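Batch job 17 of 40 flagged for manual review because the log was empty.
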Amino acid sequence: MAVHVVNWGDTLWGISNAYRVPITVIKEFNGLTSDLLMPGLALFMPDPSFPVRYYTIQTGDTLWQIAQRFHTSVELIFQANPGIAVQNLTIGQVLTIPTLDKYPMEILAFVDAFVPGSISEKLGRYSESITYLAVFTYTVTPSGSLSGLDDRQLVREIRSYDIEPLMVVSNYAEGTFSPELADQVLEENIRGNMVNSIVAMVRDKGYSGVSLDFEFIPPERRADFTAFVSELKRALGEQILHVNVFSKTRDMPSNPFAGAFDYAAIGQYADIVTVLTYDYGYAAGPPDPIAPIWWVDQVVRYASGLIPETKLMIAIALFGYDWITPDQPDVDARSLPALDAQTQALNNYAIIHYDSQAQSPYYTYSENGQQRVVWFEDIRSVEAKYRLLESYGLLGASFWRFRYGFPQNWAYLARNIDVIKKDS
């Protein structure tokens, strides 16, 4: 795999000749709708090189042993890691390993059932790279029942592509996540009805399991939420329980965002736990990277010490944020799909910069005389996250959300990842 970062004077014709990749293929893999390029644009190039894996050097490792483990050669490892010291490997260094043995990974993507429009075209194109589709959302009511969704056809369609459908259950009401609703339904006398309602709906609609997406839970409900997770898993039996938890780098029991999530206890009961490793830079805050790699690393290091790696997923944003600058605290950023962020940069002739510490792209532009800044994800930033994911040996990744355009991400998965399919 190669990534070409556009320089001044580059043309698609010249890049096509240099990599021996047809222009039409470059456009398809990178979501380009014209020949326009701007400096800093990162292009995924489907060259004929091997897929890549990532390995963290351990005490006692030799390049020969590593090559044998991944069914590759020392020469290929050398070529992929210029400057590596063969007689003095650095413990903890992450090596790029060219190999035909792809990393096995589960992939979960969220699809919002209440947004009009079919997902058939995307399912047809990307179904081989998805293990689960989580349908957002069934909302709990104060009595513990569930709001309804007209989703039977969607569930059948998801299954027809050999993807496991998960039913998202949340405290999302009237366009936002409600702490008050979470507080109500986690009462012990309500939880039983909520569990029964969820299990009945899962079985009636033909889902493979549940994805819990409770956000802004009052921290004093920490023990109650853990009890709910335990009770729901017991009632679901062999069906899947996936739980989304807010990111943190240490336990903060009184924190209004992450305090209610007892990582160790939730990891004991749930089948899959996704740590929401995005929104470091968030819509209501100042401009910042969506998911700087140093922060994601800190979150994963903490989470993997409490949740088994075989159950743990990180979340990867398929979107970016567009802020007014200087920051106006009373004005939220606009959210936009990653591909739209890229297209907007090109349409505004904006140079794309790359923060090497955060491993995140960004650009500035002007709209109606107002300066704006956009942080988003591209092939470089998601590759860094897949590298981190594999270095920790995690189960996989979750995407918010499936409808968002990001062809580079799907091209990377198809080339480098062996996406696991479940036996229904």
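Reviewer: the log was empty due to a logging misconfiguration, but the result itself is present. Residues 188-205 form the longest helix (18 residues). Unflagging and moving on to job 18.
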